Amino acid sequence: MTSAAPANSGLSFHTASRRHLLVECTDLSATMHLHHALESAALPGIVELIPAARTVLINFDPARTSATVLEKSIRGLSHTASESDDAREVTIDVHYDGEDLAEVAELLSVSPAEVIARHRAATWQVAFAGFAPGFGYLAGDDPLFDVPRRSSPRTRVPVGAVALAGEFTGVYPRSSPGGWQLIGRTDAQLWDLERDPPALFVPGTIVTFREAERESVTAETSASGDGDSTAVPNAAHAVEVLRPGLQLLVQDLGRPGFASMGVSNAGTADRFALTSANRIVGNAEAAAGLESFGGGTLLAITGTGVAAVTGAHGTITVTSADGTIHRPRLGQPFALEDGDELELGTAERGIRRYVAFRGGVEAESALESRSSDTLAHLGPAALEPGTTVGIGDGRAAPHLVDPGPHASQERHLPLPGETLTMTVTLGPREDWFTVAGVKTLLSQEWTVTHESDRVGLRLEGEVPLERSRTGELPSEGAVTGALQVPPNGQPVLFGPDHPLTGGYPIIASVDDTDLAAQLAPGVKLRFTTSEESAPDAAAADDGSDDHTHRSPENES
Fold first, then answer.
1. Which residue ranges of the chain lie beneath pLDDT 70?
2. Which range of residues forms the domain containing residue 482?
3. Where is the Carboxyltransferase domain (predicted)?
4. pTM of the predicted structure, to 2 decimals
5. How many angstroms separate the CA atoms of 450 and 458, rounded?
6. Are 355 and 391 in contact (CB under 8 A)?
């Protein structure tokens, strides 16, 4: 697929957060072209690109660039080379026996045989990834394929299902719910951590489908690779989970840089708390620790070492083998001896606590991270009773233990029933809401409901947010802290394990995602913009981050 159109034609720019810019294109072809141009240009300060159906979400470092600088640079891009000259090519064998094949044929006013023939004859290219690791949205060159999603999504689509939706075809890399129309199945392995890259479909890949015979799949790309390592527990210093509490996960700072394969950053929900705990015990900030949700965690210690607990407030109890009880303070290092038990009582202020051990937690690594992504099912599984995790050699930790006071001790976290005001950055889709709807967001009190986890916090307000536009928004990149609004008008505050892309409009994003990670059910929220809460913020800022960048509304 080639294009000679200028990369900057028909673009509109939208603020997605203080460090994210959403660039909207006129159509899918223009989006693919822009993504390719941005990859080739390698503009300074860009951290990651997340292409979608009509947009490219740019994650940038505000210390190196700004939304204004990026917009100017992107408008000046020019790129006319073919986007498929050096593209990977794969061939997928398909058994065309999908449950919806006859219905798809009827919708397209052709026979099932013609659906199959034209699906095979078309040239498909991976436009973007999302939904699940390894799931690619494939755009084709046959205008026949524009298929509506099922009116009632399936609760379970089998792994390997070949499906159609809108202008795309795709293959489900794992069993999951889905509303696409199923036309066949394949044995192709779409996601394999032992392969380099793990995703068979990455943006730009050219895909050809053919009817399967005896062989189920051939791929013109290597399935070999170094894969990821699994750490062997350190028997000399380890932690056994006696009681995990509501949820106990291994977390580090996540896995940035894999959005092209449908993998979000994920990582610790409260980066401030985990990095603080690691600094206290002398680890590198990125070392893995334990994330305890709600408290109630009980751990048995093998070997000697140093630990620290940060995040939510609550009792911390160390009971030695002889019954001696010690109660360490939040945000202070404490010694652990062989046979000790470490207990985290119920979280009182805040909802998540972090335990760092000098030397770091050793656990299975996936894509260069030990982070547990609960939505994508990447990284270590949630820790269950009887699970043992190793602790690294504390002598190899890069820093000395810091016994001094830390900011994490003084951090104010809300109790259920208390009202907290949070600053938000409007965008990228506040124009999908009426003036009254935006006013409701910023004037009404919202309650964090019990339907909350690492994927998102469901909020409830007396008046739902009123939309000015109806219809479906093409899937586009989403950020941690985004306030996505489903049809019921009650926003969902995205957590670290949120979907990489989504189809509901995002009205704003909260600025302090670490604080958002500590919001327990029952906490009341009020939102304000940075301009309202700090009118002189620009004077206090270093000038590198453009907080108020806006562009004209999308005309389409």
1. 1-9, 79-86, 214-235, 532-556
2. 419-540
3. 11-201, 260-544
4. 0.85
5. 8
6. no
